[in-house]
Structures are given as C-alpha cells and as structure tokens.
Amino acid sequence: MEEQQNRRTIRSFVKRGGRLTPSQQKALDDLWPEYGIEYSPDILQLDAVFNTSAPLVLEIGYGNGETLVQQAAENPNKNFIGIEVHEPGVGHCLLRARETGVENLRLVVHDAIEVLSDQIPLDSLARVNLYFPDPWPKARHHKRRIVQHDFLRLIADRLSDSGTLHIATDWANYAEHIDEVLAQSDRFEITERREHDGDQALDRPRTKFERRGLKKGHRIWDWCCTKALE
What we know:
Blueprint: H1 22-35, H2 46-50, E1 56-60, H3 66-74, E2 79-83, H4 87-100, E3 105-108, H5 112-118, E4 125-131, H6 149-158, E5 159-169, H7 172-183, E6 188-196, H8 208-215, E7 220-227
Parallel strand pairs: 1-2, 1-4, 2-3, 4-5
Antiparallel strand pairs: 5-7, 6-7
Helix pairs in contact: 1-4, 3-4
C-alpha cells in the first residue's frame, strides 16, 4: 500500500465518543448516506463522489462543522471534504449541512493520515485546512502533534502544483514547533504568517476553538504555505 512510511502507531488525536443528542444520532442515521464517505484503502473517484469537477478543499479536524459548512456555502464553486473523529461533531455538522442545503460537502470519520494516504489521489487538492489542531502541550506528548515532517510530505504530494496549506493555532509553544517544522521543509514555502489577537484571521472564518483560546488570553498564529515546485 502506498506510503507505508506515513503509518503511525502514535495517534495525533484521542477518539472521544461523547454523548450524541437524539438529533445528532438521527442526522448520522439519516444524512450519512447523502454526505458521508466510508473509509476504505481505495483511492476515491472524486468526480463520482461529487458528481462534478471543481477545486477540492480538505479540512482536517473540523470540530462541530460550523465553519466548514459556512465555507462550503460561501464557495459553491469548490468541493469540500471534512475529516473528523468526534461523532457528536459529525452529527452537528450534518445537521448544519442539511439546514444550509449545501451539496458540495462530504465527510469522513477516520484517521486523517490514513484517509490522505489511502483515499486522496495525488495532486488532487487545491487547499488543505488545519485549524487549531490538538496542541498536545506537554513535552512528552509533542510526538503526537500532527504537524511533522512526514505529514507535510503527505500533504504536499496530495496538493496540486499551486495548492496551499493553511494552519492556525492559539498555543505559543505549538506555533514555535510549526515554525521549526516548516523552516526545515523543502516541500512548502510560507506565503504569509500572522500573529494577532483574533482580528486578522488569514482567509478563514473564526472557529469555536479560536474563540475559546481568545477567552483564555491566547494569541493566534496563522500560516498560508504554498507547495514548493520541484
């Protein structure tokens, strides 16, 4: 199977089942056939998934899906795939998708690294969004952070030649880590980097986790990185 080196025994997330509300459970039961993509070790036929050809945006860890649905609604000329492992968040996202009536959105419930490795074709993505990933703040857990060299290589291989990677965090230590990993990567060039107080988000909506961080007095870091031409 392709890119076995990207397989990890260390996960960058903890899968928390959480308690589904009755409406979230009903959304998973009723709406998943319309919006869901089942994980499998086979490459997706994206035109068949969306019944149309359009630039594809992939978001890793979309939380409750509010901003993901917002982006899909505001950009009907693009297709969106969201990856999340927290089922209540998936249920909430499905409800918002139905309320908004978006047709250019699909969801996957699985480990993002395996989805990228197995299902996303090479050179197929216009953009990847990674907004406020788990910071794993304790030093002994830094190896669990998703932003690592192998992750950047995996993303770069799936991006088109002009594709971009957008990252945001509210943890200063994680921002330092991201700066170090990007500085050592030959697969991306930093197009723009911002440090701000929640008032200069870089081409993205404000998220739930961003609002939570701002209430704690955290600053915000944003990066836009363009795939380097080989």
